[in-house]
Write a structure and sequence with these properties.
five-stranded mixed β-sheet; alpha+beta; 56% helix; rod-shaped; 467 residues
Length: 467
């Protein structure tokens, strides 16, 4: 059976409060009852002791004393009787006898003990409280005195108190119910808000937010919920971005692979069917060879990225003379730069060194410089190197078309390629070049950053810690 959380809260709160009040009421009622009867017993005992003391002082003239006490006690609805050592009544005010004594009670008084009975309903028509005191003269038991008082007055007091307690419990239950309803409704409303927000998130809405606070656990849960939704929103945006890149990657793969495969297939079919003249066969074979190398480069680029990303490569770090390395790279890429009428300039001190893996650092720099060459025409590409405190700084700067500020953070993403590169980039065809660069720099415990301004050029800054 399904029970709403609101009703569970109300039932638990009200039940706890009612049970607590009932227990307190029972304890209080028991305390009052004992208190009333103890007072009555103390009163009877006090009167009995006073009578016995006055009788001891006036043994020859006890009648006036007994009569005087009789009038006083009658006004307080208390009866008393005197009896001798054989339990025979020798004087009595009120009922005769007031109470019939039991053997054990008589034996106790003979031994000098006081007998107290808080409530007795069997020996008379109405309940009484009575006290039986021994009368000792010259260390001899000579009789006793019994004082009794009806308990109807005490019971009325106790009943009145119990009645007030019942009213108090009822009022407390009503107040508890109202407070419980208000508090439970408040908390259920907050939980309901969380439930509705969760349903929206389950439906794909990651923009939902709910008020949070540090007041209680529900407020903290709301705050954590907002953090979770925020992260989910970021993750979904990343997933969507990756999905778009994946689609573009598949399109690029189809485009990039189709062209060399078509060329190779055409050359092979032409040679096989003697459709290519002998004078053109060498040229056709060279074309097929170039396209085959291009395919190998495409595949290796992807394999290289996966190795780097999964940390499957080992760096062989050493101190490298930076200027010499930059000069070698310049010689390798000069022909490529001249095709776009660019000039590569090296600026570095002879004693500047960089602590890195030679092959991987070469891969990093060639990737970046090729990008600079690709997006620069009739310009200058500068390679600079210097030492700053405990690190080596390498700068590669061009004055090409630059990068849109909104695109800068995206260039490190896998499969990302700027629009212009899709049809003109013969290197890094799958858009993995800068992604590989980023991973390799991280493996060197280095840093890389890029600044760019549209139509004014781009600068890459690499920092490698010295050994």
């Amino acid at each position: 059976m399904k029970v709403k959380y609101l009703y569970q809260q109300i039932a638990s709160h009200v039940s706890v409060i009612i049970i607590a009040f009932l227990i307190l009421s029972l304890l209080f009622s028991h305390f009052v009852k004992n208190f009333v009867y103890e007072n009555k017993i103390d009163e009877l005992t006090s009167y009995g002791q006073n009578i016995l003391r006055d009788l001891e002082r006036n043994r020859g003239n006890s009648q006036p004393i007994l009569s005087e006490y009789g009038r006083v006690l009658a006004g307080r609805d208390i009866q008393y009787s005197l009896f001798d050592q054989r339990s025979a009544i020798i004087y009595s005010i009120g009922r005769t006898p007031i109470v019939e004594l039991k053997d054990e009670e008589w034996n106790q008084i003979k031994q000098g003990y006081t007998v107290v009975v808080k409530q007795d309903f069997k020996r008379l028509e109405e309940g009484v409280t009575f006290v039986l005191l021994p009368y000792i003269h010259n260390n001899q038991f000579v009789g006793g005195i019994l004082l009794a008082s009806p308990i109807k007055g005490s019971r009325q007091v106790i009943s009145k108190i119990n009645e007030f307690l019942v009213y108090t419990v009822l009022i407390a239950a009503v107040v508890a119910f109202m407070l419980s309803w208000i508090l439970s409704a408040f908390h259920v409303k907050r939980i309901k808000r969380l439930q509705e927000a969760t349903s929206l998130v389950a439906g794909g809405d990651y923009s939902v937010r709910i008020p949070s606070s540090d007041f209680d656990e529900i407020g903290e849960l709301s705050r954590d919920f907002n953090k979770m939704v925020k992260k989910l929103n970021i993750s979904m945006e990343e997933i969507e971005s990756l999905e778009n890149r994946r689609r573009q990657f598949m399109a690029d793969v189809s485009h990039e692979l189709r062209t060399p495969l078509t060329t190779i297939s055409g050359v092979i079919e032409g040679i096989r069917n003697d459709m290519i003249p002998e004078s053109e066969k060498e040229k056709g074979m060279q074309l097929a060879s170039n396209e085959t190398k291009r395919l190998i480069r495409l595949v290796n680029e992807n394999l290289d990225y996966e190795k780097i990303r999964s940390n499957q490569i080992t760096l062989n770090k050493q101190n490298i003379q930076l200027k010499e390395m930059l000069e070698i790279i310049k010689e390798q890429l000069d022909i490529l730069a001249e095709e776009k009428h660019n000039e590569i300039v090296v600026e570095a001190d002879e004693d500047t060194v960089v602590h890195a893996d030679y092959d991987r650092l070469t891969q990093i720099l060639i990737n970046i410089i090729k990008n600079s060459i690709q997006f620069t025409e009739n310009g200058i590409i500068s390679m600079r190197g210097r030492t700053e405190s405990d690190q080596t700084v390498i700068e590669i700067e061009d004055n090409g078309i630059g990068i849109d500020p909104e695109e800068i953070e995206k260039i490190w993403g896998r499969f990302y390629k700027a629009m212009l590169s899709r049809t003109t980039n013969p290197y890094g065809e799958f858009g993995l070049g800068l992604s590989i660069v980023k991973q390799l720099v991280n493996l060197h415990n280095g840093e890389i950053e890029v600044t760019s301004e549209k139509e004014k050029g781009t600068k890459f800054i690499l920092k490698f810690p010295l050994k």
